[in-house]
Fold Crotonase/enoyl-CoA hydratase family protein.
Amino acid sequence: MDGAASEDLVTYELRGSIAVIGLNRPEKRNAVSDRVVNALSAAAERAEGEARAAVIHGHGKHFCAGLDLAEHVEKPLIDAVKGSRQWHRIFDRFERGSIPFITALHGAVVGGGFELAAASHIRVAEESAFFGMPEGTRGIFVGGGGSVRIARLIGAARMGDMMLTGRTVGAPEMERWGGVSYVVPEGQGLEKAMEIAAKTAENAEMSNYAILNALPRIQDMSSEDGLFVESIMSALTSATPEAEERLRAFLEKRAGKVEAPRNG
Ligand code: 1HE
């Protein structure tokens, strides 16, 4: 047992239109037990009902130490399969839901913690964050969607290297590998993630929905099918009253221009 009421394993707060979800087992480095997975699912459901975007972060010294290894010891084979499928269902809910999820990463981002981050839409890492996939050393394999999502983010060769050698990768290198999109100074991860979440929350809901749901599916299609679905989504989003108003606002000079990046 992970020794806490499930509502305490994950904190939840609504700040304006942004849901702030915190992994909250700092004494166990936010290791993910079955009940943490379920608490994350409840938090995601609540966020989708009342927020326009969400940030996931970790309380304490680390983002997340991955699977709760204490719970995994001597788990019957069938329970291990069911457990992994439950992670898949819940991480899918983040990835293909209706609002953007941004992860704020610091300290250790390990195994299942990296898999959770990979299911989010934008990853922000503090400079000292480090990424590890010690599955090889632990005698296990990824089970939270990493073989699909992490492999797509950084490439199967790099992921295989991390799993075989157990080596850790720092935030700047992970940014070069495409595993995170932003690296920020110590202590500024949550603030940056909130800023990004607020930006995404201003978008038209239908555009966000298409970005979250059509884009990853198109990656699984043939080019021919992908281009067809793109055309349908393009027509659908632009037919909404919100798109019409936003397009008109630009033409009438009531909307902002696209700006050059501020830092190079
Ligand atoms: C844990 C876990 C855990 C810490 N399950 N209890 N994940 C791992 O292989 C990572 C294992 N953890 C570590 O390598 C280190 O704990 C950290 C680098 C993350 C952090 O180090 P540190 O020095 O800050 O903490 P600590 O002293 O090692 O840990 C504090 C406590 O948390 C300690 O328990 P205590 O009772 O002795 O106080 C640890 O045992 C406990 N703890 N991590 C259970 N993961 C869906 S498949 C996904 C597959 C994976 O995720 S594989 C990766 C598993």
